[in-house]
Amino acid sequence: MNTQNSRNEPPRVLSPGDQQFYADQGYLVKEGAIDQAWIDRLNSAMARLVDGTRDMTKSDQTYDLETGHTRDTPRLRRIAYLDDLDPVFWEFCKDSPLADLAADLLGPDLRFRECLINFKWAGGGQEVKWHQDFPFYPLTNTSVAQFLVCLNDVGPEQGPLQVVPGSHKGPFYDHYDGDGNWLGYIDDKHLDNAGLERAVDLTGPAGTVTVHHCATLHASRANLSDLGRPVVIVTYCACDAMAYTAVSYPSSNCKKVVRGEEAKFARLEPMQMRLPPDWSDGYTSIFEHQEEEA
Ligand SMILES: O=C(O)CCC(=O)C(=O)O
Description:
- The protein is α+β, with helices and mostly antiparallel strands.
- The chain has a single domain (20-293), classed as Jelly Rolls.
- 19% of the residues lie in helices and 19% in strands.
- The chain is globular.
- It starts with 15 loop residues before the first helix and ends with a helix.
- 2-oxoglutaric acid is lined by residues 118, 128, 161, 218, 220, 231, 286.
């Protein structure tokens, strides 16, 4: 993992202790990382997008509707391509403290990959099964991570993200079944010694940012509470991490440099990584893949 700042610049928003915690544990939780003014703007933009789905009757590559979605009671699992849908989201990805936080963990030369919302709607929002992110989008090195921004307060009853501390130092797991079908999760039979009993819930008030390393084992329970759990998810990577495969949500901003400079060299970590399916003709969402295969 490369959490070192190769230009020896001081961290922008994190402490050296935060950086060390991430390097050791493969995740970090920062309460108050995003201020209320940003959270209000993001919530308003999200509400406008949800409102625009009222007449939709089936999911497409941008809007992933949950069973039970109607005009009067919209229910969604995910909206992708946020940075193209509303300028507030692109401004957030490039100009907010989130990119500074990401640069403190992934390196000063930082590339944007994607921005989406996972909703976990109140009263049943779907679980996400155990998986690692890197097998979905292998790059030449592992300086890539997902940053989740809580738009509501998130407690244990709302299906928060769960991670297994330290699991980023362990193996990459296969996300296929025995017949070579993509599952989008890790089959239970591989998880006996994965340390799931040590998993921790990543909770916090609105404005909390959680980040997990691309090899960290993570999942989340269904949201059976009466309070939704919308999180904006932004994926950044180091500029010298080059993609081996198509990006799931290739927005017009995908791969733009948001901090520092474009890379002159690719940095390669030795690895043997089973490639995901080719999504260059379109990706739907992890919820759909996991549901199909369940
Ligand atoms: O929204 C969640 O709880 C899980 C997010 C996640 O792991 C994913 O979308 O890949």
